Amino acid sequence: MLCSLVLAIRFRKNREAREKSHRPAVAAGDFTVRVTGWRRSELDRITEDFAQLYGIATPNVRETEAGVYHLEWSDGLNRDNLAFLVNFLHYPRGVDPAGRNIMATARLAPGVIDEVPPGRALLLYVPSDDEDFDRIHALDDQGSAYVVDFGRVRYVPTDDARCPPQVRGLIA
Fold first, then answer.
1. What is the model's pTM?
2. What 3-state class would DSSP assign to 93?
3. From CA 169, how far away is CA 172, in angstroms rounded?
4. Structure confidence at residue 80 (pLDDT)
5. Cβ distance 38 to 171 under 8 Å?
6. pLDDT score recorded for residue 22
7. What pLDDT is stored for residue 66 in this prediction?
8. Contacting residues for 9 by C-beta, under 8 A, at least 6 apart
9. Buried b vs exposed e over 32-68: b needs ≥16 C-beta within 10 Å?
């Protein structure tokens, strides 16, 4: 009996992971990703590491203005990877962000995230004074805020937006 329960739980977790990894891609035209604070060579290594970690293509990286980079995936990305990417750009493996002013954000078109009311675009970002490292926040264009916990990758409303002021300027 206990063995059956353990197997059922393990099967459910594996099934949920497979379902998440096969979510349809958000079309390339439905999101924008920008980052600043890294040198180009560092950003190339970070995005290559992210692509390898999640089994996706590496992005086309172009500098839009001094030190601001735009990341593009011609085939799009799934919604979970977009959330993970914003976090990964702040906290990459093997690169120390200490002493830098790293800022990464993604803007998602209306309708991309089911948990957000229809017609609202979203900004994804790492909140000010972040201490969790395994979640990001989102702010819709009506001012409603959400927490995105990576355990379930759900957008849960919150009153604690903690949106750094640079986020809006980075994506404008």
1. 0.83
2. coil
3. 5
4. 93
5. no
6. 54
7. 86
8. none
9. bbbbbbbeeeebebbbebbbeeeebeebebeeeeeeb
Nearest CA to 168 out of 106, 112, 111, 101 is that of 106
User: CA dist 5 to 2, 13, 19, 24, 152, Å?
Assistant: 5, 12, 21, 31, 21
What length is written for the chain?
Answer: 172
Q: Can you tell me the distance from the alpha carbon of 112 to that of 46, in angstroms, rounded to the nearest whole number? A: 25
Task: For residues 165 and 162, give the distance between their C-alpha atoms in angstroms, rounded to a whole number.
Answer: 9
Q: What is the pLDDT of residue 120?
A: 96
CA of 20: how far to CAs of 13, 142, 154, in Å? 11, 28, 11
Helices (H), 22-164: 40-54, 79-90
Residue 131 φ/ψ, nearest 5 degrees: -125, 0
Enumerate residue ranges in the chain where pLDDT < 50: 1-8, 10-11, 13-15, 17-21
What's residue 18's pLDDT?
43
Task: Read off the pLDDT of residues 50-64 as tens digits, 9 standing for 90 and up.
Answer: 999 999 999 999 999
How high is the pLDDT of residue 24?
66
Q: Which residues contact 88 (CB under 8 A, 6 or more apart)?
A: 46, 50, 53
Phi-psi region of 153 (alpha: psi -120 to 50; beta: other; left: phi over 0): left
